[in-house]
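Pipeline run #58 for the internal structure catalog. This entry was flagged by the ingest filter as a single-chain record with no existing model, so it goes straight to prediction. Upstream metadata was stripped on purpose; only the residue string is passed forward. Reviewer on rotation: M.T. Logging verbosity set to normal.
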Amino acid sequence: MGQDLYATLGIPYNAIPEEIRGAYFKLARAYHPDTAADPSQSEQFLKIQHAYEVLSDPKRRAKYDASLPAHLLAGPEISVSVKYSQPALAVSEEPQLIYALVDLICTADIRPESKYSRHFCLVLDQSTSMKGSRIEMVKSGALQLLQQLHPHDLISVVTFGDRAEVLVPPTRASNLSKTDQRIRMLQPGGGTELYQGLSAGYELLLQTESVHHRHLILLTDGHTYGDEDRSIELARQAADEGITISALGIGNDWNDEFLDQIAGLSGGNCQYIASARDLNHFLLQKLTDLETIYARSLRLEFDHESAAQLRYGFRLSPSTGPLVVSDAVHLGDIQHRRTISFLLEFLVPALKYEQDHFSLARGQVKLEIPDIPSPNARIFLDLHRPVRARYEAEQPPLAIVEAMSKLTLYRMQEKIRQEVNQGKINEATRHLHYLATHLLSQGDRELAHTVLIEAEHIQQSRSFSDEGEKRIKYGTRALLLPPGPELIS
């Protein structure tokens, strides 16, 4: 019938019989001629029925699979490497922590014939607080981005203050003759209604569903009030639609925890923008990254069988940031010949007896590959450790030791923030000095100096300075970045 039978049922090429059966019954109910509202859906029902008849029969499925290109059946060109903080779990009456460093390694080469379309939507804060150098920096960064786009790229621009306005509807880069002037004429005014801008940008990206990569870049310098829950729900919807959100905070008076969550829910990242150089670097790096994406919208979905609790997740590369731990953990996109690395912290309950293995987590990483038509490509993930009454301790792999030591510094600043909020000033000051000592030992004198200045500020004012708080948070986060991107050989 000239169709991809797996795509018809919306299942991966390595689907098991239960998945084939479940997909068929779900689609059959929706498209059955007796229940479908549109008579034309009868043709789709016949395709669904044919796909099920072939794929549910082992012999017919094997014959059909033999007719498909080999690279489709081989699955994603991504290998999995897992390193653990300890070789085994101990028999113990007390809970214990264990860490897993997971590397998803893309081994695929860029195909010269692959031309992926991209849609960037800039959502720009033009509230009154953006006046002066901030609005000029944003305009300059936006204009520089336009100059770097490929002719077939789409760009749209939304501005927001008290309300949102579509400054530039989705437009091919080759047709941007009048866009420069519209951006140059931006003038700040009004309050900060962040949801208005996010919603308008999201709707524009939804209009271009056929585009391979859709990315919303939010630039703001202030707090939003009363619309946080709606913004977070919109970020979840964006993730479900394969839309990535990056959030850029300009200056010091913005809610970093809120923007971290907005970006993290879709696999994007949040970044502190202290200068025009920071902004230009981020935008140009984002353009470069999207030119070499192998798969998009990676999301880790765990089965709910393990007694272990996933307490914390942190992405180490290609960008750093805490992962929003939920039923689906969004990891972002993966580039050709690159690696996504993330660290997971599990709390294991009391273990009373030895066993061959204890399951920390089982699940799958789902992803979308533009070169492969079938949806729901996935990689299986099984994290487990043996349980022993006695075992010989080993030095953890160097990669996980380095990741955990640097993550400790980042989490230390999180703890210090909590202590300041709780009024525990002496504890916070002591931990800041401890943090500065470790930064000095690593050669980061500038960040250590910032930490010591902030310790004095906290003693005097019993609170962080806005600038110091963000410099420490995003400075310790930057420590987790690898030295530089390297191709996988």
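catalog note: The longest strand covers residues 355-368.
catalog note: The chain has a mean pLDDT of 90.
status: ready for reviewer M.T.
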